[in-house]
Design goal:
The protein is 35% helix and 24% strand. It is an alpha/beta fold and 203 residues long. It has a 7-stranded mixed β-sheet with strand order 3-2-1-4-5-6-7. The structure holds ligand DQB and 5-O-phosphono-beta-D-ribofuranosylamine (GRF).
Length: 203
């Protein structure tokens, strides 16, 4: 399977996906063929270049509408014959049009145990709520933000004195395992989204 990854920043999740897909022993069943960033000069682009993966910067401010930006991304992904798209720290909301084109082949990782703490600053939401356990969620992407079918979740303890940064760092240690694990399941067809019932089918 051919994978496209959309990023906006540091790309630690992208790095985990690169390390696993470029290691044949991981038997991921897929390769990353394109990395698209909506922001230039971010660390994630350097990570892709170091790994020999083609990159593109598509600046959303160059487009009049969300749909036009999304369709520019879609055209590149189609052009590279991408089968699966991973959102790895991608911070733009995608239009329903894009989601419909990629539904069931579009994954995202969120730094909280959905359905808790949707949206941005999930780590801060967890600290403000005083939960003792948080973690990450890998899910199929639906138009409704952070509401898609859940593939994998990993937990971490919230420690006393945690800040957004220390909690984010601890969550990232489990993200780098969870995202490749979910991508491998989808790439091998061990799980798919029944788009009629909106239910996951595990084989
Ligand atoms: N339609 C759809 N698209 C997404 C795009 C990114 C992410 C990643 N998680 C995200 C969750 C929330 C945001 C957010 O609220 N950003 C501030 C507004 C930025 C903007 O104007 O675009 C971004 C990414 C998830 C989704 C999703 O679940 N569904
Ligand atoms: N989507 C969320 O945004 C962050 C991106 O980090 P990075 O992958 O760009 O380092 C990660 O914490 C991920 O859960």
């Amino acid at each position: 399977k051919r994978v496209g990854v959309l990023i906006s920043g540091s790309g630690t999740n992208l790095q985990a996906l690169i390390d696993k897909t470029q290691n044949p022993a991981s038997n991921m069943g897929c390769e990353i063929v394109m990395v698209i960033s909506n922001k230039k000069d971010v660390e994630g682009l350097k990570r892709a270049e170091r790994a020999g993966i083609p990159t593109k910067v598509i600046n959303h401010t160059d487009y009049k509408s969300r749909e036009e930006f999304d369709m520019a991304c879609h055209a590149i992904l189609e052009g590279e014959r991408v089968d699966i798209v991973c959102l790895a720290g991608f911070m733009r909301i995608l239009s329903g049009q894009f989601v419909r084109l990629w539904r069931g082949r579009l994954l995202n990782i969120h730094p909280a145990l959905l359905p808790l703490f949707k949206g941005t600053h999930a780590q801060k939401q967890a600290l403000d709520a005083g939960v003792r356990i948080s973690g990450c969620t890998v899910h199929f992407v639906e138009e409704d933000v952070d509401a898609g079918a859940i593939l994998i979740q990993r937990t971490v303890p919230v420690e006393h004195g945690d800040t957004e940064e220390t909690l984010q760092e601890r969550i990232k240690t489990v993200e780098r395992e969870a995202f490749p694990e979910a991508l491998k399941l989808v790439a091998h067809g061990h799980v798919y989204l029944n788009t009629s019932t909106n239910r996951l089918v595990w084989s």
